Amino acid sequence: MLMRRQLPYAAGSVLLTAALALTAAPPAAQAADTVEATVPNGTFADPVAPDNGTQAGHAGWSPDGNGVVFGKGLAQHPQGYQAASLNWNGAPLTMRTRLWGVKKGSTVTLTWDDSPSTYRGCTPEQVEDGQTYNVSLITDGPAPDPQVTTKGSDTVGTANWTTGRAFSFTATEDNPMVSFDSAEPAGSMSCGPLITNVQAKQTPAPVDQKIRKEQLPPPKAYRGNDPLEPGVAVDDCEGSPTTCTFTVDKRYSYQYYGQTRIVGEVYLNCTRNAITDDRKLEVTEPPYDNLTQYYALKGAPLLPSRSELAKSRPNVASQVEAGFSVAGGNAAAVSTSNPLTWTRTTNKPLNPVIQPGEVSWIEVQPARERVTGSFTNSRNNYRLDATFDVPATSLPDRYYQRTGPLTEVELQRCGANRPTAGTPDNTAGPDKRLTPLDAPPQGLATRAVPLVP
């Protein structure tokens, strides 16, 4: 699918172009629930460049190897940051990165600093009026490319930094991608604008608690900033118990009570007396996860179990357990009173008393835990975002012992004739199957006893 750059709108329906034209002013005060968003290598400290020299590449940004970092002395940033050049080797460059952990619908404010090039090969004409570049959110569909122009520089090789450039947008996908593109012509050689100190803040989108555990959102995987088939990342993490590290996103992980359901039998008392129903209740809460669901929808269900990741992918499951323990404050991942539980079976002896003409049943409202997070593998730069829904350990299930009047159908059943077998008709003479009695001995006195006095 073709990806294009889209211009978001600033607050108050002001176009981003106008927002970008504001220089040096700090961003407006953020809302109380605004938090930091991760920008990989935002000060371009990796790789380390010679103090007054350059170094190829910038970790965490794409395309890989397509770029150059100016060392601290060459960049001349007031806070001593390294900087990335948007022109090098005679060509304009593009730099893109994802804002990890930002969910679709979140409001994001991106900030950065810029300067005309400090490259000593520039000409005075190239830097005196500033240098131009585009900033954009990568998304589907066409949109205009807003442009930003740095301050000018009166002396070749001298920086003129502007701090606090900013624009805001609403994320159109999870982990949105932002892009910086030079608008200087190819003839500018290696003289192009510098950027550094790229930061982001977000007002996270609200948690959608209406998503059913049987239909979790699909997993997403990346190699660097590029999308990756999720199955590749799953197989990679399954390589060993320590291949990947799972980190819980606490903002989108929560405990909740599931839908109430009837468990065990429904007992009807059609007698004239109260009765005690001795029963042994068994309730099982299964696990759900979007990795298992993803494979099932592909037509390649995980084996040996279609429903339990702990059996089909034990190493992946152990990484989730370790990350869950760390998120609960147990950084050492040792014994804990709140472990992640994949499945739970509860046995309960119950003795409900049922009054005449009433019905008795048991309902359970299961305590569940929605766990959202990501697997990372620094060795090959993989990332896998996944969601799990398991029984909650630190939240008790709710059991409801219910009794109530019989329904109309149940009353009819209680009042119906008792089903029984047919009775043979004995009016057609003596039953030949009866054993005859012997006559009394001769001479024995007998007397007749009338049946009716």
Write up what this structure looks like.
Keywords: Signal. 12% of the residues lie in helices and 33% in strands. The chain is mainly β and 453 residues long. It has two domains: 200 residues, Sandwich (Jelly Rolls), CATH 2.60.120; 193 residues, no CATH class. The strands form seven sheets. Strands 2, 3, 4, 5, 9, 12 and 14 form a seven-stranded antiparallel beta sheet that branches. It is rod-shaped.
Concise overview:
Keywords: Signal. Residues 1-31 form the signal peptide. The protein contains eight helices and 28 strands.
Question: What is the molecular shape?
Answer: rod-shaped
CATH-defined topology of the largest domain: Jelly Rolls
Which class do the helix and strand fractions yield? Answer: mainly beta
Strand content: 25-35%
Q: Determine the fraction of residues in helical runs and give it as a percent range.
A: 10-25%
Helix count, DSSP H or I runs of 4 or more residues: 8
Mean pLDDT: 86
CATH architecture of the largest domain: Sandwich
Radius of gyration: 38 Å
Q: What's the domain count?
A: 2
Extract low-pLDDT stretches. Answer: 1-32
Quick one: how many beta strands? 28
Straight-line N-to-C gap? 108 Å
Main sheet record: 7 strands, antiparallel
Say what oligomer this is. Answer: single chain
CATH structural class of the largest domain = Mainly Beta
Can you identify the CATH superfamily of the largest domain? Galactose-binding domain-like
